[in-house]
Amino acid sequence: MSAAADSPGRGRYIGHPLPRPGARRLLAGRGRYTDDVLLPRTLHAAFLRSPYAHARLGAADVSEAAAMPGVHRVLTGRDFVPICTPWVGTLSHFKGMRSAPQMPLPTEKVVWAGQPVVMVIAETRAEAEDALEAIGIEFEELEPVVDLDAARAPGAPRIDADAPDNVLFRTRIESGSTADAFAGAESVAVDLRFGRHTAVTMEPRAVLADFDPGEGRLTVYQSTQTPYQFQDLYARHFGLPEARVRVIAPDVGGSFGMKLHLYHEDMAVVGASLLLKRPVKFTADRLEAFASDIHARDHRVRARLALAPDGGLRAIEVDDVTGVGPFSAYPRTSAVEGNQVVRLIGAPYRLTDYRADLTVVAQNKVQMSQYRAVGHPIACAVTERLVDLAAQRLGLDPFEIRRRNYVTDAMYPHTTPSGYRFEKLSLGTCLSKLHDLMDYPALRAEQAALRGRGIHRGIGIATYVEITNPTPAFYGVGGAHISAQDGCVLKLTPAGEVQCAISVTEQGQGTEAIVGQIVAEGLGVDRDCVRVHTGDTETTPSGGATWACRGAGIGGETALQASRKLRTRILEIAAAILQAEAKSLDIRDGAVTDPDGTPRMTLRDVANLAYYRSDLLPPDVSPALTVAHHFAPRGYPFAFTNGIHGSLVEVDVETGLVTILRHWVVEDCGRIINPLLVDEQIRGGVVQGLGAAFFEECRYGETGQLLNGSMADYLVPMACEMPDIVIAHVETPTGDTELGAKGCGEAGTAAASGAALNAVNDALHPLGASLSQLPMTPERVLRALNVI
Amino acid sequence: MIEPRPIAVTVNGATVRRFVEPRVSLADFLRGDLGLTGTHLGCEVGVCGACIVNLDDRPVHACLMLAVQVDGMRVDTVEGLSDSGALAELQAAFHARNALQCGFCTPGILVVAQDFLEACRAAGRVPSREAIRDALSGNYCRCTGYEAIVDAIEGVARTRHGRDRREDAA
Amino acid sequence: MKARAFDYRSVASVPEALAAHAGCAGEARYLAGGQSLLPALNLRLDAPDLLIDIGRIEALRGIAREGRTLRIGALTRHAETLRSALVAEHAPMLTQAAAFMAHPAIRNLGTMGGSLSLSDPAAELPACMRALGAAFEITGHGGTRIVAADDFFLDLFENAIAPGELLCAIRVPLPEPGTRMRFEEIARRRGDYALVGLGAKLVLAGGTIVSARLGFCSVGPTPMRAPAAEAALTGRPLDAQAIAAARAALGDDLFPDEDDSLSAAARMHLARVLLGRVLAALSDAGAPAAIEGAAA
């Protein structure tokens, strides 16, 4: 189906699979990532990191290190106390949440293995690392808190001595009466564990801070999704005027949520530049990335589902315990993932009763926070495993039980028991489409035939709903300086071309490409004459940037409305020159035309006049050809997307290895701006979800040491192990915007692991085995099969 | 103090002479001394594949070579292979298929793919998707999920094979 | 992640290499392909004072048949092993193993001598060398000595090379008539270190196994032979009973350690599964996958 059919404008660009203009530069090796940025007099930072998960800091002897070749300065926690204020990772709408204040480097205690403790600043990174080896520091080991359950046990050692226990946040959601629903009802239950995993962006975190004392001006090049957020943080915590803090996000080599949190090293690098009055650069190496990038997931979810007497799904009870590291991340907290887990469970289904408990627990591991599809994969896997178990209990096919129990088309707008409001979803349509796309009956027949030959295939499906286009309900209401609106400045240049500066950012997903398409469409100009610029707080308007699947939906709408505004200006000027009514003119193919399309004057002519011959304009007509526009979503708190995944796997019951044969996705992200890019967002997301399902897990030892913190030991999905992924679309545009777009960046990750879990369990079911832990490693499969 | 050593390396067709410390990797030399920042560092232990360059026409990890080791040898980076047009077909196919997102892994993948396709061409065969995936087994990509990359390489392989057959027939 | 400072010397001959090593007051390392050494240097897990680059010594190159032996120069790259017609003809197990070794770009630099000198028990080549009954030419100031693969691997990353000595060539005996050989491994992902790997070389005469050599990787501190399983095979036809007996006997041969990624029980189980699969592939029933060693 064509997304262009009823698009705004003429559908010349919106809805078309256009390649990204910016990709050519990356293909030629001309990308400019933060570590590639070269400033005169740059110094390089390296950090001594704690070998212990929990220890009191003793004296540090840095004199030898400070005297080593190339070393300019050795900084410890105390050096930052006079210049930086502490930060606390809580939000006021998470009632009762607490977290220990953080500073760039610790002064008393270390709370995870890998925490930066001492910073060396030298001429080269190698010299800085040489000096690290000359630092003597004493640690007095404390008992580490590692395991989720041990962290909550009475008498457990406390990570934050000022707190009564290790619980950072607790909440309960209750709707209806689950007690009544479960009384005497048939029910199914799960106890699912989700391993910690991490983003493993190809480009590690990098930051280059350059403080110019002459102007009191700080410029920070940073590999991040959210330059405006960091501008605010650096200004506030270092007491600098915000207008003199500039944050530039050059090309970003992957982020997936990982690069929008504040890291201790970021603050130390900025602080060091302030202290040394020189550019200071830090690029995390891969070991540092594993030891200090945020991790995600780490949940144990116990849940049960009650069936109504008629066999319908009626109620769910959930207990989610999540371990988030020693403190809550800043400024978005470490409670959002758990909060989304307990609100998303059961969301696609007609439930009458719901109760969920969330406990967010501190541990001596690296901080946990938002990573692609925050909470969604967990909520999806829990829900969809419960639904599959209910199907087994009722003797229903997995497609049939979903068909019978989804929220139906007649129910919108619909409010879930956990309080989410759905404008309109397409659950049933997607389900039917997946059934056809997979050729489900043929797959089942093939499965049965192969089973007779000892080949164990499994088919699994998993429905998701995804939170996109968030309003300030997400962060702003909690007091975070994180914007939910976006801004766009559009300029018609004197030559009649278009420059667009917008606050949504680019990490390779194609933000700049779709904004260019939208602007070209909205203005009526050729795509090639629109140049989109992002990622610089000084040259783009302030806004939310890119996270939570908001780039297309909110940023795109901002661009569309801005282009309408510029169009109005152009026509106003043209009308004055042509002595016509502005509303009787149009812009097509870069020219002002009559309603029938007859060209009257080119945009170049209009611009030339406005810029160079403004004397020809009537006095009451402004020559301005630059417009600024901001857009904030004001309708539903979130625009929910939905879709469904199918997974076909083959389990080698002798080795426990699982081959992923095929994966299907039917998704509905509303208006599709560029199907080529949407498909690639889905595919990339699916593969990260399959990573979680089969490979990715941060394994910790009893003392809180990360055991597999290297690329050779932490397994991410590779080309040989990943399947081809078949994608189909349903389009249910949101009515909250003219564009109608919702997000798609997390939909692949949201349900891939749930579908795979159901597929593997489908394969194992005839053997009397089942799995309830991700990732599904050979060891776990063999144990489930009782082979070992 | 260990003295820097003089080296002469042919980089992207031009001979460069520098003094380098023995401990400096080829990757750091290319990036730091020569400004060839298209060679990316993703792991520095030869796992991720982002730093792969051609050394005497064979793909190697620039993080697992010392600059002093390549004295007298020929190194071609993504910049040189791009400027010479050697990668043009692959680049066009990657662009059309959107076989990259953040682009960090892309230079290494292009170098590996080009070498792989040359070997396939020499053998007169169009590689299977499995063979393409195998050739990429040492290249991490965290954005695409690999399928588009496989598609792009497969497309170039078919185009080249078809052209070769037509030329053979002519 | 930058290496500590070290000195560097490129040498053109084996005597020059030995002299450079002897002349180094501190720790010296030979640098061949560097595909294991450089990661260790970058991670600062190793910090020699001097690297002696032997990569340009022509005498360490080349693959040649010498009488009943295939002689492989220590500097033979894995990619060369993979492509060598001589290796494919006389030691196809190595051709098969090379395809499992890391990834293409690593294979372009990594060398056979380097891999064996490192003696990583998880690597493919050491296990193959034991299965093939290979021997190594090791040169030091006292001259060259020949050490059998079975006597070479002493412990985790420890072998019979004395400080300053250089592994110069690998001698693989040509297969006698009736030889079948195969290498396979089980890994999580393509090119990863094997959860378990196995090189097997059987000699059959008149339908009976007259000799069996099994070399496992990733199941102990060194590449492991499996004498009990080998004994269980010898003197029997290669059939389901023999395979079952060998699988059962393996419990007396291997005692894998527990590690955080795989339990000892799982690894032992996988070793048995792999043994069964490799033997089945070598048996007549599994003949399509079996490779008959060429008669001399």
From TrEMBL, chain A:
Question: Which InterPro entries does this UniProt record tie to the protein?
Answer: Ald_Oxase/Xan_DH_a/b (IPR000674), Ald_Oxase/Xan_DH_a/b_sf (IPR036856), Ald_Oxase/xanthine_DH-like (IPR016208), AldOxase/xan_DH_MoCoBD1 (IPR008274), AldOxase/xan_DH_MoCoBD2 (IPR046867), AldOxase/xan_DH_Mopterin-bd_sf (IPR037165)
Could you tell me the keywords of this UniProt record?
Molybdenum, Oxidoreductase
Which domain of life, per UniProt? Bacteria
Indicate yes or no for the key word Oxidoreductase: yes
Q: Which residues form the Aldehyde oxidase/xanthine dehydrogenase a/b hammerhead domain?
A: 28-143
Pfam families hit by this protein: Ald_Xan_dh_C (PF01315), MoCoBD_1 (PF02738), MoCoBD_2 (PF20256)
Q: Where is the signal peptide?
A: none
Example of a GO MF term = iron ion binding
Q: Which SUPFAM superfamilies match?
A: CO dehydrogenase molybdoprotein N-domain-like, Molybdenum cofactor-binding domain
- PANTHER family attached here? ALDEHYDE OXIDASE 1-RELATED, XANTHINE DEHYDROGENASE
> What's the protein called, per UniProt?
Xanthine dehydrogenase family protein
Automatic annotation (TrEMBL), chain B:
Database matches in InterPro entries? 2Fe-2S-bd (IPR002888), 2Fe-2S-bd_dom_sf (IPR036884), 2Fe-2S_ferredoxin-like_sf (IPR036010), 2Fe-2S_ferredoxin-type (IPR001041), 2Fe2S_fd_BS (IPR006058), Beta-grasp_dom_sf (IPR012675), Diverse_Oxidoreductases (IPR051452)
**Which residue range or ranges hold the 2Fe-2S ferredoxin-type domain?**
5-81
Quick check: keyword Iron in the entry?
yes
PROSITE patterns, from UniProt? 2FE2S_FER_1, 2FE2S_FER_2
Which GO MF term does the entry hold, naming one? oxidoreductase activity
Quote the Pfam families the UniProt record gives.
Answer: Fer2 (PF00111), Fer2_2 (PF01799)
Do you know which SUPFAM superfamilies this protein is assigned to?
2Fe-2S ferredoxin-like, CO dehydrogenase ISP C-domain like
Query: Keyword set for this entry?
Result: 2Fe-2S, Iron, Iron-sulfur, Metal-binding, Oxidoreductase
Q: What is this protein called?
A: (2Fe-2S)-binding protein
Organism, as annotated = Methylobacterium planeticum
Taxonomic lineage from the root: Bacteria, Pseudomonadati, Pseudomonadota, Alphaproteobacteria, Hyphomicrobiales
Automatic annotation (TrEMBL), chain C:
Q: Which UniProt key words apply to this protein?
A: FAD, Flavoprotein, Oxidoreductase
Annotated PROSITE patterns:
FAD_PCMH
Task: Name the domain of life.
Answer: Bacteria
Give the protein name, as stated in the record: Xanthine dehydrogenase family protein subunit M
Pfam families cross-referenced by the UniProt entry? CO_deh_flav_C, FAD_binding_5
Where the record annotates domain FAD-binding PCMH-type, the positions are 1-177
One GO term in the molecular function aspect is:
FAD binding
Which PANTHER family does the entry mention? Answer: XANTHINE DEHYDROGENASE SUBUNIT C-RELATED
- Tell me what organism the protein belongs to: Methylobacterium planeticum
